[in-house]
Protein backbone atom coordinates (compact mmCIF):
# COMPACT_ATOMS: atom_id res chain seq x y z
CA UNK A 1 0.00 0.00 0.00
CA UNK A 2 2.81 2.42 0.90
CA UNK A 3 4.57 1.65 -2.40
CA UNK A 4 1.37 2.44 -4.30
CA UNK A 5 0.99 5.62 -2.27
CA UNK A 6 4.56 6.61 -3.12
CA UNK A 7 3.94 5.91 -6.84
CA UNK A 8 0.86 8.13 -6.80
CA UNK A 9 2.78 10.94 -5.11
CA UNK A 10 5.56 10.67 -7.69
CA UNK A 11 3.18 10.60 -10.66
CA UNK A 12 1.56 13.62 -12.26
CA UNK A 13 -1.71 12.43 -10.65
CA UNK A 14 -0.42 13.35 -7.17
CA UNK A 15 -0.77 14.53 -4.46
CA UNK A 16 -3.05 12.07 -2.62
CA UNK A 17 -6.12 13.27 -0.75
CA UNK A 18 -8.29 11.86 2.03
CA UNK A 19 -11.80 12.39 0.67
CA UNK A 20 -14.77 12.18 3.03
CA UNK A 21 -16.89 15.02 1.66
CA UNK A 22 -19.11 12.66 -0.37
CA UNK A 23 -20.02 10.48 2.66
CA UNK A 24 -23.10 10.73 4.90
CA UNK A 25 -22.70 12.71 8.13
CA UNK A 26 -22.35 9.67 10.42
CA UNK A 27 -19.50 8.31 8.29
CA UNK A 28 -17.66 11.61 8.68
CA UNK A 29 -18.36 12.05 12.40
CA UNK A 30 -17.07 8.59 13.38
CA UNK A 31 -13.46 8.96 12.12
CA UNK A 32 -13.46 12.65 13.05
CA UNK A 33 -14.23 11.83 16.68
CA UNK A 34 -11.35 9.34 16.81
CA UNK A 35 -8.84 11.46 14.89
CA UNK A 36 -9.60 14.69 16.77
CA UNK A 37 -9.90 13.29 20.28
CA UNK A 38 -8.48 9.81 20.90
CA UNK A 39 -5.61 10.02 18.40
CA UNK A 40 -4.37 13.60 18.17
CA UNK A 41 -6.46 16.40 19.64
CA UNK A 42 -4.27 18.98 17.88
CA UNK A 43 -5.44 17.68 14.50
CA UNK A 44 -8.88 19.30 14.79
CA UNK A 45 -7.30 22.62 15.78
CA UNK A 46 -4.85 22.31 12.88
CA UNK A 47 -7.57 21.82 10.27
CA UNK A 48 -9.78 24.49 11.83
CA UNK A 49 -6.84 26.93 11.61
CA UNK A 50 -6.73 26.36 7.86
CA UNK A 51 -10.49 26.68 7.58
CA UNK A 52 -10.72 23.04 6.48
CA UNK A 53 -13.47 20.60 7.35
CA UNK A 54 -13.86 16.96 6.23
CA UNK A 55 -17.36 17.86 4.99
CA UNK A 56 -16.14 20.54 2.62
CA UNK A 57 -12.44 19.91 1.96
CA UNK A 58 -10.28 16.98 0.88
CA UNK A 59 -7.19 16.57 3.07
CA UNK A 60 -3.76 16.26 1.46
CA UNK A 61 -1.94 13.15 2.71
CA UNK A 62 1.77 12.36 2.75
CA UNK A 63 4.15 9.63 3.85
CA UNK A 64 5.97 10.47 7.05
CA UNK A 65 8.50 8.87 9.39
CA UNK A 66 9.32 6.12 6.96
CA UNK A 67 13.10 6.47 6.97
CA UNK A 68 13.91 5.10 10.40
CA UNK A 69 10.59 3.83 11.67
CA UNK A 70 11.04 0.70 13.78
CA UNK A 71 7.28 0.45 14.04
CA UNK A 72 6.85 -0.22 17.75
CA UNK A 73 7.89 -3.85 17.14
CA UNK A 74 9.98 -4.50 14.06
CA UNK A 75 13.31 -3.47 15.52
CA UNK A 76 14.93 -2.70 18.84
CA UNK A 77 16.82 -4.36 21.65
CA UNK A 78 16.68 -8.16 21.45
CA UNK A 79 14.90 -9.61 24.48
CA UNK A 80 13.79 -13.04 25.65
CA UNK A 81 10.38 -14.11 27.03
CA UNK A 82 11.18 -12.32 30.32
CA UNK A 83 12.20 -9.05 28.63
CA UNK A 84 15.85 -9.76 29.47
CA UNK A 85 18.32 -8.17 27.07
CA UNK A 86 21.53 -10.00 26.17
CA UNK A 87 23.45 -7.91 28.75
CA UNK A 88 22.89 -9.59 32.16
CA UNK A 89 20.68 -7.45 34.41
CA UNK A 90 19.44 -5.25 31.55
CA UNK A 91 15.77 -5.32 30.47
CA UNK A 92 13.93 -3.73 27.57
CA UNK A 93 10.18 -3.33 27.02
CA UNK A 94 7.87 -1.24 24.88
CA UNK A 95 9.07 0.58 21.80
CA UNK A 96 12.68 0.02 22.82
CA UNK A 97 12.35 -3.78 22.59
CA UNK A 98 12.15 -5.97 19.50
CA UNK A 99 8.87 -7.80 20.18
CA UNK A 100 6.63 -8.48 17.18
CA UNK A 101 3.38 -6.51 17.22
CA UNK A 102 4.32 -4.87 20.48
CA UNK A 103 2.47 -1.53 20.49
CA UNK A 104 0.83 -0.40 23.72
CA UNK A 105 -0.42 -3.78 24.88
CA UNK A 106 3.07 -5.23 24.32
CA UNK A 107 4.61 -2.36 26.29
CA UNK A 108 2.30 -3.12 29.24
CA UNK A 109 2.84 -6.92 29.10
CA UNK A 110 6.61 -6.80 28.67
CA UNK A 111 6.92 -4.01 31.24
CA UNK A 112 5.18 -6.37 33.69
CA UNK A 113 7.36 -9.33 32.71
CA UNK A 114 10.51 -7.25 33.12
CA UNK A 115 9.40 -6.02 36.53
CA UNK A 116 8.56 -9.55 37.74
CA UNK A 117 11.85 -10.97 36.60
CA UNK A 118 13.96 -8.07 37.86
CA UNK A 119 12.29 -8.27 41.28
CA UNK A 120 13.68 -11.80 41.60
CA UNK A 121 17.26 -10.71 40.90
CA UNK A 122 19.84 -9.65 43.45
CA UNK A 123 21.07 -6.07 43.35
CA UNK A 124 24.33 -5.61 41.48
CA UNK A 125 27.17 -5.81 43.97
CA UNK A 126 30.28 -5.41 41.79
CA UNK A 127 32.29 -2.29 41.10
CA UNK A 128 30.94 0.11 38.52
CA UNK A 129 33.15 0.19 35.40
CA UNK A 130 34.88 3.56 35.79
CA UNK A 131 35.81 3.81 32.12
CA UNK A 132 32.13 3.50 31.09
CA UNK A 133 31.15 6.10 33.68
CA UNK A 134 33.81 8.43 32.32
CA UNK A 135 32.55 7.94 28.77
CA UNK A 136 28.94 8.63 29.82
CA UNK A 137 30.02 11.78 31.64
CA UNK A 138 31.96 12.87 28.59
CA UNK A 139 28.96 12.24 26.31
CA UNK A 140 26.71 14.47 28.42
CA UNK A 141 29.06 17.32 29.38
CA UNK A 142 31.39 17.50 26.36
CA UNK A 143 29.42 20.31 24.57
CA UNK A 144 30.06 22.67 27.52
CA UNK A 145 33.71 22.78 26.54
CA UNK A 146 32.97 24.23 23.10
CA UNK A 147 30.08 26.68 23.56
CA UNK A 148 30.81 28.22 20.16
CA UNK A 149 30.81 24.84 18.36
CA UNK A 150 28.14 23.98 15.78
CA UNK A 151 24.70 24.23 17.46
CA UNK A 152 22.65 21.08 17.96
CA UNK A 153 19.79 22.33 15.75
CA UNK A 154 22.07 22.61 12.71
CA UNK A 155 23.90 19.32 13.27
CA UNK A 156 20.65 17.45 13.88
CA UNK A 157 19.06 18.95 10.76
CA UNK A 158 22.03 17.88 8.65
CA UNK A 159 21.99 14.37 10.14
CA UNK A 160 18.27 13.98 9.50
CA UNK A 161 18.70 15.18 5.93
CA UNK A 162 21.22 12.40 5.29
CA UNK A 163 18.73 9.87 6.71
CA UNK A 164 15.99 11.27 4.51
CA UNK A 165 18.12 11.49 1.37
CA UNK A 166 20.11 8.26 1.61
CA UNK A 167 18.41 5.78 3.99
CA UNK A 168 14.72 6.37 3.29
CA UNK A 169 13.27 3.94 0.73
CA UNK A 170 13.55 3.14 -2.07
CA UNK A 171 17.04 2.15 -0.96
CA UNK A 172 20.15 1.25 -2.95
CA UNK A 173 23.58 -0.07 -2.04
CA UNK A 174 25.20 3.08 -3.39
CA UNK A 175 23.03 5.48 -1.37
CA UNK A 176 23.25 3.38 1.80
CA UNK A 177 27.04 3.24 1.47
CA UNK A 178 27.11 7.02 1.14
CA UNK A 179 24.89 7.25 4.21
CA UNK A 180 27.27 5.15 6.30
CA UNK A 181 30.17 7.30 5.13
CA UNK A 182 28.35 10.49 6.18
CA UNK A 183 27.26 9.06 9.53
CA UNK A 184 30.79 7.93 10.37
CA UNK A 185 32.19 11.33 9.39
CA UNK A 186 29.58 13.10 11.50
CA UNK A 187 30.98 11.57 14.69
CA UNK A 188 33.63 14.30 14.63
CA UNK A 189 31.10 17.04 13.98
CA UNK A 190 28.89 15.78 16.79
CA UNK A 191 31.86 15.66 19.16
CA UNK A 192 32.41 19.36 18.46
CA UNK A 193 28.82 20.51 19.11
CA UNK A 194 28.40 23.38 21.53
CA UNK A 195 25.84 23.87 24.31
CA UNK A 196 25.38 26.18 27.28
CA UNK A 197 22.13 25.05 28.98
CA UNK A 198 20.93 21.72 30.42
CA UNK A 199 18.26 21.55 27.70
CA UNK A 200 20.87 21.97 24.96
CA UNK A 201 23.04 19.33 26.64
CA UNK A 202 20.16 16.86 26.52
CA UNK A 203 19.49 17.61 22.85
CA UNK A 204 23.19 17.22 22.02
CA UNK A 205 23.26 13.77 23.69
CA UNK A 206 20.16 12.84 21.68
CA UNK A 207 21.90 13.79 18.43
CA UNK A 208 24.64 11.27 19.14
CA UNK A 209 21.96 8.60 19.74
CA UNK A 210 20.20 9.55 16.51
CA UNK A 211 23.53 9.17 14.70
CA UNK A 212 24.08 5.71 16.22
CA UNK A 213 20.57 4.60 15.17
CA UNK A 214 21.05 6.05 11.69
CA UNK A 215 24.28 4.14 11.18
CA UNK A 216 22.74 0.92 12.51
CA UNK A 217 19.75 1.32 10.18
CA UNK A 218 21.92 2.07 7.15
CA UNK A 219 24.26 -0.84 7.78
CA UNK A 220 21.36 -3.22 8.48
CA UNK A 221 19.63 -2.11 5.27
CA UNK A 222 22.86 -2.73 3.35
CA UNK A 223 23.21 -6.19 4.86
CA UNK A 224 19.68 -7.29 3.92
CA UNK A 225 20.22 -7.92 0.21
CA UNK A 226 16.57 -8.39 -0.74
CA UNK A 227 13.33 -6.37 -0.75
CA UNK A 228 10.69 -6.95 1.97
CA UNK A 229 7.78 -5.18 3.68
CA UNK A 230 6.71 -3.25 0.58
CA UNK A 231 8.16 0.23 0.48
CA UNK A 232 9.77 -0.06 3.92
CA UNK A 233 12.70 -2.13 2.69
CA UNK A 234 12.61 -1.71 -1.06
CA UNK A 235 16.14 -2.22 -2.45
CA UNK A 236 16.28 -1.12 -6.09
CA UNK A 237 19.46 -3.22 -6.53
CA UNK A 238 17.87 -6.29 -4.88
CA UNK A 239 14.20 -6.04 -5.92
CA UNK A 240 13.10 -9.62 -5.07
CA UNK A 241 12.00 -11.05 -1.74
CA UNK A 242 14.29 -13.91 -0.70
CA UNK A 243 12.67 -15.99 2.05
CA UNK A 244 15.28 -18.72 1.87
CA UNK A 245 18.09 -16.33 2.68
CA UNK A 246 16.23 -13.60 4.52
CA UNK A 247 13.13 -14.78 6.37
CA UNK A 248 15.50 -13.99 9.19
CA UNK A 249 15.99 -11.51 12.01
CA UNK A 250 19.10 -9.44 11.63
CA UNK A 251 20.98 -9.27 14.95
CA UNK A 252 23.48 -6.45 15.25
CA UNK A 253 26.20 -6.37 17.87
CA UNK A 254 29.31 -4.39 18.67
CA UNK A 255 32.34 -6.55 17.95
CA UNK A 256 35.46 -6.64 20.10
CA UNK A 257 37.04 -4.09 17.75
CA UNK A 258 34.07 -1.73 18.18
CA UNK A 259 32.63 -2.37 14.71
CA UNK A 260 28.98 -3.19 13.97
CA UNK A 261 28.58 -6.82 12.91
CA UNK A 262 25.58 -8.90 11.93
CA UNK A 263 24.08 -12.36 12.41
CA UNK A 264 21.07 -13.59 10.42
CA UNK A 265 18.80 -15.54 12.79
CA UNK A 266 16.03 -17.63 11.15
CA UNK A 267 12.46 -16.73 12.07
CA UNK A 268 10.92 -19.35 14.37
CA UNK A 269 8.19 -21.56 12.86
CA UNK A 270 4.82 -19.80 13.11
CA UNK A 271 2.39 -21.10 15.76
CA UNK A 272 -0.38 -20.56 13.23
CA UNK A 273 0.95 -21.37 9.75
CA UNK A 274 0.80 -18.53 7.23
CA UNK A 275 0.42 -19.75 3.65
CA UNK A 276 2.70 -17.22 2.06
CA UNK A 277 5.59 -17.65 4.51
CA UNK A 278 7.48 -20.81 5.42
CA UNK A 279 10.40 -20.09 7.78
CA UNK A 280 13.42 -21.94 6.46
CA UNK A 281 14.79 -22.71 9.94
CA UNK A 282 18.35 -23.94 10.25
CA UNK A 283 21.26 -22.38 12.12
CA UNK A 284 22.01 -18.69 12.39
CA UNK A 285 24.50 -17.28 9.89
CA UNK A 286 27.26 -15.07 11.23
CA UNK A 287 27.68 -12.37 8.58
CA UNK A 288 30.29 -10.12 10.14
CA UNK A 289 30.56 -6.52 8.99
CA UNK A 290 28.78 -5.31 5.89
CA UNK A 291 30.72 -4.24 2.82
CA UNK A 292 30.17 -0.76 1.46
CA UNK A 293 29.90 0.10 -2.21
CA UNK A 294 32.99 0.88 -4.30
CA UNK A 295 34.96 3.91 -3.25
CA UNK A 296 33.23 4.27 0.09
CA UNK A 297 35.35 4.20 3.22
CA UNK A 298 33.82 4.11 6.64
CA UNK A 299 36.15 3.12 9.40
CA UNK A 300 34.81 4.52 12.65
CA UNK A 301 37.34 6.62 14.54
CA UNK A 302 39.02 4.48 17.17
CA UNK A 303 38.21 1.22 15.39
CA UNK A 304 41.51 -0.54 14.79
CA UNK A 305 40.95 -2.24 11.48
CA UNK A 306 41.45 -1.31 7.86
CA UNK A 307 38.43 0.27 6.18
CA UNK A 308 36.04 -2.25 4.67
CA UNK A 309 35.54 -2.05 0.93
CA UNK A 310 33.18 -4.00 -1.20
CA UNK A 311 31.19 -3.90 -4.40
CA UNK A 312 34.19 -4.75 -6.57
CA UNK A 313 35.53 -8.09 -7.77
CA UNK A 314 32.08 -9.54 -8.22
CA UNK A 315 30.88 -8.69 -4.75
CA UNK A 316 27.80 -6.48 -4.80
CA UNK A 317 27.53 -3.53 -2.45
CA UNK A 318 25.62 -4.50 0.63
CA UNK A 319 26.82 -8.06 1.07
CA UNK A 320 28.38 -9.54 4.17
CA UNK A 321 32.13 -9.17 4.40
CA UNK A 322 32.88 -12.40 6.14
CA UNK A 323 30.99 -15.57 6.76
CA UNK A 324 33.12 -17.82 8.95
C1 LIG B 1 0.97 8.42 16.27
C2 LIG B 1 0.97 7.10 17.01
C3 LIG B 1 -0.19 6.35 17.09
C4 LIG B 1 -0.19 5.14 17.78
N1 LIG B 1 -1.37 4.43 17.87
C5 LIG B 1 -1.40 3.31 18.61
C6 LIG B 1 -2.62 2.60 18.81
O1 LIG B 1 -3.67 3.00 18.30
N2 LIG B 1 -2.62 1.48 19.56
C7 LIG B 1 -1.46 1.00 20.14
O2 LIG B 1 -1.50 -0.01 20.84
N3 LIG B 1 -0.28 1.65 19.98
C8 LIG B 1 -0.22 2.80 19.24
N4 LIG B 1 0.96 3.45 19.07
C9 LIG B 1 2.19 2.88 19.64
C10 LIG B 1 2.26 3.15 21.14
O3 LIG B 1 1.97 4.51 21.39
C11 LIG B 1 3.69 2.81 21.63
O4 LIG B 1 3.99 1.48 21.24
C12 LIG B 1 3.77 2.91 23.16
O5 LIG B 1 3.39 4.19 23.60
C13 LIG B 1 5.21 2.62 23.62
O6 LIG B 1 5.31 2.84 25.02
P1 LIG B 1 6.73 3.03 25.67
O7 LIG B 1 6.45 3.21 27.15
O8 LIG B 1 7.65 1.97 25.26
O9 LIG B 1 7.32 4.39 25.05
P2 LIG B 1 6.78 5.87 25.16
O10 LIG B 1 5.30 5.90 25.31
O11 LIG B 1 7.40 6.59 23.98
O12 LIG B 1 7.42 6.39 26.51
C14 LIG B 1 8.78 6.73 26.63
C15 LIG B 1 8.86 7.90 27.61
O13 LIG B 1 10.22 8.13 27.95
C16 LIG B 1 10.44 9.54 27.98
N5 LIG B 1 11.88 9.77 27.80
C17 LIG B 1 12.62 9.65 26.68
N6 LIG B 1 13.90 9.95 26.92
C18 LIG B 1 13.98 10.22 28.23
C19 LIG B 1 15.07 10.59 29.10
N7 LIG B 1 16.34 10.71 28.65
N8 LIG B 1 14.80 10.80 30.39
C20 LIG B 1 13.54 10.67 30.88
N9 LIG B 1 12.46 10.32 30.11
C21 LIG B 1 12.70 10.10 28.81
C22 LIG B 1 9.58 10.08 26.85
O14 LIG B 1 9.32 11.44 27.05
C23 LIG B 1 8.33 9.21 27.00
O15 LIG B 1 7.38 9.75 27.89
C24 LIG B 1 0.99 4.66 18.38
C25 LIG B 1 2.16 5.44 18.31
C26 LIG B 1 2.15 6.63 17.63
C27 LIG B 1 3.44 7.45 17.56
UniProtKB/TrEMBL annotation:
Residue ranges of the region described as Disordered: 298-324
Domain of life: Bacteria
InterPro entries per record: FAD/NAD-bd_sf, Fum_R/Succ_DH_flav-like_C_sf, Fum_Rdtase/Succ_DH_flav-like_C, SdhA/FrdA/AprA, Succ_DH/fumarate_Rdtase_cat_sf
Residue stretches making up the Fumarate reductase/succinate dehydrogenase flavoprotein-like C-terminal domain: 158-272
Cross-referenced Pfam families: Succ_DH_flav_C (PF02910)
PANTHER family in alphabetical order: BLR3196 PROTEIN (PTHR11632:SF73), SUCCINATE DEHYDROGENASE 2 FLAVOPROTEIN SUBUNIT (PTHR11632)
Listed name of the protein: Fumarate reductase/succinate dehydrogenase flavoprotein-like C-terminal domain-containing protein
